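CO-FOLDING WORKSHEET

Operator: S.A.
Ligand of interest: zinc ion
Run index: 388
Mode: holo prediction, single chain
Checklist:
[x] sequence pasted
[x] SMILES validated
[ ] output reviewed
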Amino acid sequence: MADQAVPVKCLVWDLDNTLWRGTLLEGDDVRLSDAVREVIVMLDSRGILQSVASKNDHDPAWRKLERLGVAEYFLLPEIGWGPKSESVRRIADELRFAHTAVAFVDDQPAERAEVAFHLPEVRCYSHEQVLGLPGLPEFTPATVTEDSRQRRRMYQANFRRTAEQSAFTGPDEDFLRSLELVMRISGAGADDLARVEELTLRTSQMNATGVHYSDTVLRELCADPAHDVLVISMADRFGPHGAVGVLLLARNAGFWHLKLLATSCRVVSFGAGAVILNWLIDQAFEAGVHLVADFRQTERNRMMEIAYRFAGFATDPCACTSAYGIPPDPDVQRLHLVPDHRNAPSTMRLVSEGLPTSWTPRPRHSRRVSERRDEEDHVVTSTPTDTL
Ligand SMILES: [Zn+2]
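OUTPUT RECEIVED:
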């Protein structure tokens, strides 16, 4: 079963007689078959990263990959004369992947044995298996989202961004501005739900409630006219950051209820949480409603609490929610804010699109739906897991 195999997140290729036919150093005119090229492109489109561990002189081997038109598919290539187990280990470390998520393919049994001995969790395949790899369950992810399709480009953009940042000598704010960041806030479509679910699973530091919303619950909420599920994505001049946040909002008469805000740790340094909150506060101000936000302290989401407090949320009671009932989870604090006008962010361009047409207070009868939904939401509460 595909969903039982531990997915491979990075495949490390040998070159001579594995990726291409022939041995470069022996002067062969090495050939890349169309079938192998298709495997590379297919794995890439599934969001599986690829790298190289080859015993060759670096420059001619890399030039050959460029000439064959596939160099762009390989991150962090290790082309040199050290043991391949060290190459594979460096690649895994650099990507911060567990060895169980890494695979290695090589035609030489001795190389596979050397990697298997030092890195027993890395899965090794022979060159004869190359064309069959896309058919294996471990190379077949259950869902392929827009972010998986652009995963390699996101990594490449991040490498370039990080390199430039470490070379940048001015103030952080100036670097931030130089990125030409764009944040996009839009209603979540069917294709976004898997990304949103993944975000609520993986964003423990910046998750306001520590609640994990399953794909099924999110699908129901998207279909429920009383709820808005918004997905936040970012990009800059280096490339896409992908989906970086999710916002779950229930609209009630007189107040909007922010049930969840979760953002990726990758964009904490951009102040993404504050930008989203200020945008929402301004939207609520325009609509003439108060804002109520659920917050549940977890061991890791102190930064999100600071973002809420800094935006002006407080625990003072207000008449707007008096008929609304208390949170079903006693650990959930209900924060409140009377919105005022907020300026657009100075460090990025904000684009909101595809929002629900009716951003006005909803009639009273929708309130009952929201209360019932509240209880269901908290059934799927889970403890915060990993960070992105
Ligand atoms: Zn109020």
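REVIEW:
Residues 358-388 have pLDDT under 50 and may be disordered.
The domain at 2-142 is CATH 3.40.50.1000 (Rossmann fold).
[x] output reviewed
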